[in-house]
Design a protein that fits this description.
Helix content is 23%, strand content 25%. By secondary structure, the protein is of the alpha+beta class.
Length: 523
């Protein structure tokens, strides 16, 4: 090959980016954006959340995608893809759409066998080669109404997804404007805007097609991808291996029924089972706050300090509304220390319970997701007229290594829950099932429990006096100050026991303070 031929070959366009102006610098995807998908999951996010996909994952229409050896849950997600035409930095909602040059179809494939390994980042589960087919043609964004776009997906010729951008929780222009607040959207960048209900698993031999269009107007054409069985697997010496369980199967297929799993009995009551949950949502435990773990040293310090001492230090810093009121421990002798995982119930409405109360609802997902050293904190609005958990869920939390459970509602089967041995704080026992008063709504969100706000990742400490919530940013400062105060209080107690009056000693005046420090206090 001569030099001229070599130069021509190196300049040949990369077929992976055939539908795009060129190789994008960034591919940004949103976790959950369609109301139909959110309704399946039983919760709607307050704000959009995102993850990145490498541009090396892009593929053209007609390409094959490999399901790696030793895996089973390769899920498809038909989506509307936006292509940035002009750089956008801190653009407002009104002008955001003008920065979009093109619209096309995309398929945001994900390998659920690897999803738990990377939580919400999706680095390995959605970053594989060929995992982001786009195309085949671009629609001129200037020629379409961003609220009138339709996305449809077919599996082996059967229509399985059909929704429009009017059904999105967050309008397309909002995604552009929001992302531009945080970094510059550059020419050629691609935004994947989420998938509607109907995402499911593809198996080798399946043909998946996605089309984006304006009904009666311009179309991207059908984006075609064939699933094939790969021969290569993963080396256990290099990293974590694929792993699946019934939770991942349910989320990948869209429902237990679709996954071929038996219907799960509900501790929540006997109203009809709901539909599926979302396979396009953040991983359980994926919120940044929940990633913060307590070191063994910090946990031991918190276990050594009474809640009353921690409360005093928080009060000195202006934080008075940090106690979870109205709850009492089933194990008063046990200390509770952990980071919060939250679960929210809303008041019973029969139609909502029918849609969200049965099946694999938010309550069960929260108990399946709780990790070692975490505390499930439940918002039940102080309503004690039904249970918010029973012994089965307490056993599940205990088996997962949870540090405890706090609910400002009732506990069903209180004796059995107590026997499990996990620390539980509750407003009281009640024999009724969940569906008498509550609808399980969402988890890993900011909640109100016992009159105080609790966020995922907050530090929860409980003893016989009650339960307190400590902001993670303050916990080391608070515990150090509380330990120093405990040492000082112990010294004062010895002086009182020896017969000294409390006046001038508690709190210490200058004379007593000097004596305390002379004896080695406040080290």
């Amino acid at each position: 090959m001569d030099e001229t031929t070599t130069d021509a070959a190196s300049a040949a366009p990369d077929p992976r980016f055939a539908a795009l102006p060129g190789r994008p610098g960034k591919v940004i995807a949103i976790h959950l954006s369609y109301a139909s998908r959110a309704d399946q999951r039983g919760r709607r996010p307050q704000h959009p959340s995102y993850f990145f996909k490498p541009s090396s994952s892009l593929a053209p229409s007609g390409a094959a995608i490999e399901r790696p050896a030793g895996t089973e849950l390769l899920a498809f997600e038909g989506e509307i893809a936006l292509v940035i035409g002009a750089p956008a930095r801190r653009v407002g909602l009104a002008e955001a759409w003008r920065h979009v040059s093109g619209v096309t179809a995309a398929n945001d494939f994900g390998l659920y066998d690897l999803r738990a390994n990377d939580k919400g980042s999706n680095v390995r589960s959605k970053g594989g080669d060929g995992y982001t087919p786009v195309g085949p043609a671009l629609i001129d964004a200037r020629a379409v109404d961003p609220t009138a776009l339709r996305v449809r997906t077919w599996r082996n010729g059967e229509l399985v997804q059909d929704d429009t951008s009017a059904g999105m929780i967050f309008p397309l222009a909002q995604l552009v404007a929001d992302l531009s607040q945080h970094f510059t959207l550059e020419t050629g960048d691609v935004i994947l805007t989420g998938t509607p209900a109907g995402s499911s698993v593809a198996v080798p031999g399946d043909v998946i097609e996605v089309e984006v269009d304006v009904p009666g107007g311009p179309s991207s054409g059908r984006l075609l991808t064939t699933v094939v069985q790969g021969e290569a697997g993963f080396d256990p010496e290099l990293g974590s291996l694929p792993s699946v369980d019934d939770l991942q199967r349910t989320e990948a297929w869209g429902s237990r029924e679709a996954a071929g799993l038996p219907a799960e009995s509900s501790e929540s009551g006997d109203l009809p089972e709901s539909g599926a949950i979302s396979a396009n949502s953040p991983e359980p435990g994926g919120s940044p706050e929940s990633e913060r773990a307590l070191s063994p040293e910090l946990r031991a310090q918190l276990e050594a300090v009474p809640v009353a001492g921690l409360s005093a230090q928080l009060r000195k810093r202006g934080l008075d509304n940090v106690t979870i009121d109205g709850v009492r421990p089933l194990h008063p002798e046990a200390k509770l220390v952990g980071t919060a995982r939250t679960l929210r119930f809303v008041p019973l409405r029969e139609d909502l319970f029918a849609a969200h109360g049965g099946g694999y609802n938010a309550q069960k997902r929260a108990f399946d997701a709780v990790g070692e050293g975490e505390v499930i904190v439940i918002e039940a609005r102080g309503e004690t007229g039904s249970g918010t958990l029973g012994d089965i869920l307490a056993i599940r939390a205990h088996a997962r290594g949870a540090a405890g459970i706090v609910t400002d509602g009732g506990v069903r089967d209180a004796d059995a829950v107590t026997a499990v041995g996990i620390p539980v704080y509750t407003a009281g026992p009640h024999p009724a099932v969940l569906g008498r008063r509550h609808v399980p709504w969402d988890y890993d969100v900011t909640i109100g429990c016992g009159g105080t706000t609790v966020q995922p990742g907050d530090v929860i400490v409980g003893d016989a006096d009650g339960v307190i919530v400590i902001p993670p940013s303050l916990v080391e400062e608070i515990v150090d100050a509380a330990l120093a105060q405990e040492e000082e209080d112990a010294w004062i107690a010895r002086q009182v026991a020896e017969g000294h009056p409390v006046d001038g000693l508690f709190p210490m005046n200058a004379e007593w303070r000097a004596r305390y420090e002379a004896e080695g206090g406040a080290r």
